[in-house]
Amino acid sequence: MSRTSVHVRSADAADAPILRELWSDILRRGTAAEQEADLVGIIDDCNASGDRCLAVAEVDGRVAGAVLLEATTLTPLNLEPTLIAVSPHVLPEFRRRGVGTALMDAATRFAEAQGIATVATAATASSRDANRFMARLSLTPQATFRAASTTAVRAKLSARRAVSRGRGSRQIDKVLAARRLGREHVAS
Ligand SMILES: CC(C)(COP(=O)(O)OP(=O)(O)OC[C@H]1O[C@@H](n2cnc3c(N)ncnc32)[C@H](O)[C@@H]1OP(=O)(O)O)[C@@H](O)C(=O)NCCC(=O)NCCS
């Protein structure tokens, strides 16, 4: 197995265009300029904070992949300190050369430096490669992250309420009919 030399460093604002290409699927929708502005803001925040770092992996001086590292808690309710490796991503032409491993190594070093005992990440359920890669690093599935547009959820909730209202009124109809029958029975 040939070894590729991977260098991991902190991102700076000049990386925003290539990072936009790398994360084009996961950034919020918008123009290229808007997405780049989001990234510049994130990079500035990271460089001003001891709890976050945007790590960039380079191969032969070219950006090959990146990950956002955030020292936080496992969830807002479970206050176990956790290092979240957000969207480790390697450009397709650099995959299977140790770049992803170098990014997760950087995540683990960041956790160790802060005395954080848990490392977590999220992998797309449909990405077999990513799930196998994370499983081999001992990260096991903990939850399924689900999302939908607010309007879609509202429409489903409204439909559900209409059905249960219908069921409720059918129930009342049944009760009234039973009482009516009971009265007729007593009268006859
Ligand atoms: C998951 C991902 C980050 C892995 O990145 P990568 O750079 O390919 O990772 P590595 O090269 O370090 O390791 C990948 C595999 O190649 C193998 N490998 C590493 N160096 C190698 C080499 N020189 N020759 C052959 N194989 C090699 C590793 O052993 C590993 O095998 P495994 O998956 O069976 O454990 C990358 O596939 C990716 O960006 N996927 C799309 C985005 C995504 O789904 N991200 C994950 C979110 S959690």
TrEMBL record:
The keyword Metal-binding does not apply. Gene3D superfamilies: 3.40.630.30. Keywords: Acyltransferase, Transferase. The keyword Ubl conjugation does not apply. PROSITE patterns: GNAT. One of its GO terms (molecular function) is acyltransferase activity, transferring groups other than amino-acyl groups. InterPro entries: Acyl_CoA_acyltransferase, Bact_Acetyltransf, GNAT_dom. Transmembrane segments: none annotated. Residues 6-160 form the N-acetyltransferase domain. This is GNAT family N-acetyltransferase. It comes from Nocardioides currus.
